[in-house]
């Protein structure tokens, strides 16, 4: 059985999906883009701020499910420009202990929703 996880502390979905789905002890979090949930506006122009907003959105969803970044076992990062990888990685690293960080892939893509520069999804377990 699956349980839908949604919080007003992260952006509302912009399509036919939910912020996250809990199935058994596994939480699947939809890709988060840099939308400020309070205003609904995109954070633009600074990849570090954009990445931080993505991570804060993910944090809010994890908290709604009763989890933290310690529960994350897999991350997927999609970026529009691999030249921004180090800046994105520096922000991302602030949310994890290097010794117990999750598995991850980072992929450069042609476009992302709303033409943002970064989108991050995660899988977490209880």
TrEMBL record:
Record's protein name: 2-iminobutanoate/2-iminopropanoate deaminase
GO CC annotations on file: cytosol
One Pfam family cited in the UniProt record for this chain: Ribonuc_L-PSP
Similarity-based family: Belongs to the RutC family.
Gene Ontology MF annotations: deaminase activity
């Amino acid at each position: 059985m699956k349980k839908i996880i949604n919080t007003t502390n992260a952006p509302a979905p912009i399509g036919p999906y939910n912020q996250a789905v809990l199935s058994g002890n596994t939480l699947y979090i939809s890709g988060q883009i840099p939308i400020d949930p309070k205003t609904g506006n995109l954070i633009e122009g600074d990849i570090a701020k954009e990445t931080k907003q993505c991570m804060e959105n993910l944090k809010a969803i994890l908290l709604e499910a009763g989890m933290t970044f310690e529960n994350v076992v897999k991350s997927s990062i999609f970026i529009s420009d691999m030249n921004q990888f180090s800046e994105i990685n520096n922000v991302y690293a602030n949310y994890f202990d290097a010794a117990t960080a999750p598995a991850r892939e980072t992929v450069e893509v042609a476009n992302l929703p709303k033409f943002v520069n970064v989108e991050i999804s995660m899988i977490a377990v209880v």
